[in-house]
């Protein structure tokens, strides 16, 4: 157990140190403006992602002021953030009303730490009847596996205001986290 905690603390220290050393302005300048477009703004992978869930598994992002990625101005509104891979590159899709409105490149993608969701997502407080209902569904799911619904991927958003009018948006979706960078003023 001590060895695991030491490893975890070391990983957190290394990730904090690399975050302090990251040159966001250089990353921003090197990222290309995406040329990826979807026919009629429809994401073909969305049907695969939503086939086992009752609601959208993507994180909802509310933007109250415009942010910019080079010549792309993302206007205020509500967006579903969806990570997608295209020809070996990762992109973050900003969807509004089910249509892809903006495509932004992801500059880094890595594994979500093992206990991240347990430590950062609040646990729902269930009433007695809700607890009984969940337990009964778990029992039915043990004996009839086809009736058991897969859980939706866990999500989390982390926004950091950086120096020189940069904003770092980290999207945790399932087992991975995706890093994007924006500016609060257009160049």
- Strand-residue proportion: 25-35%
What series of H and E elements makes up the topology? HHHEEEEEEEHHEEE
- The Cα radius of gyration reads 19 Å
User: Count the strands?
Assistant: 10
In this structure, how is the largest beta sheet organized? Answer: 4 strands, antiparallel
Measure the end-to-end span.
Answer: 50 Å
By DSSP (H or I, 4+ residues per run), the number of helices equals 5
The structure class reads alpha+beta
The average pLDDT is 84
Overall, the morphology is elongated
Strands ordered across the widest β-sheet: 1-4-5-6
Please tell me the total number of domains. 1
The residue ranges in which pLDDT falls below 50 over 5 or more consecutive positions are 1-18
Question: Describe it for me?
Answer:
The structure is a single chain. This protein is an alpha+beta fold. 28% of the residues lie in helices and 33% in strands. Mean pLDDT is 84; it is low at 1-18. A hairpin with a 2-residue loop joins strand 2 (67-69) and strand 3. It has one domain. It has helices spanning 2-21, 24-30, 46-50, 116-120, 128-143, and strands at residues 60-63, 67-69, 72-74, 77-86, 89-96, 99-105, 108-111, 155-161, 166-173, 176-183. It is elongated and about 60 Å long. The strands form three sheets. A four-stranded antiparallel sheet has the order 1-4-5-6, with no helix packed on it. The protein contains five helices and ten strands; from the N terminus they run αααβββββββααβββ.
């Amino acid at each position: 157990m001590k060895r695991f905690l030491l490893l975890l603390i070391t990983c957190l220290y290394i990730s904090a140190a690399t975050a302090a050393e990251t040159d966001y302005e250089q990353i921003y300048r090197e990222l290309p403006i995406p040329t990826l477009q979807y026919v009629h703004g429809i994401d073909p992978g969305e049907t695969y992602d939503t086939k086992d869930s009752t609601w959208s598994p993507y994180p909802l992002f509310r933007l109250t002021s415009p942010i910019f990625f080079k010549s792309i101005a993302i206007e205020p509104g509500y967006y579903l953030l969806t990570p997608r891979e295209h020809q070996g590159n990762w992109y973050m899709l900003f969807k509004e009303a089910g249509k892809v409105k903006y495509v932004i490149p992801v500059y880094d993608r890595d594994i979500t730490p093992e206990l991240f969701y347990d430590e950062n997502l609040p646990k729902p407080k269930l009433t007695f009847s809700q607890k009984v209902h969940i337990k009964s569904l778990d029992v039915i799911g043990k004996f009839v596996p086809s009736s058991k619904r897969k859980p939706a991927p866990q999500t989390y958003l982390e926004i950091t205001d950086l120096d020189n009018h940069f904003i770092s948006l980290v999207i945790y979706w399932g087992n991975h986290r995706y890093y994007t960078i924006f500016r609060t003023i257009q160049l």
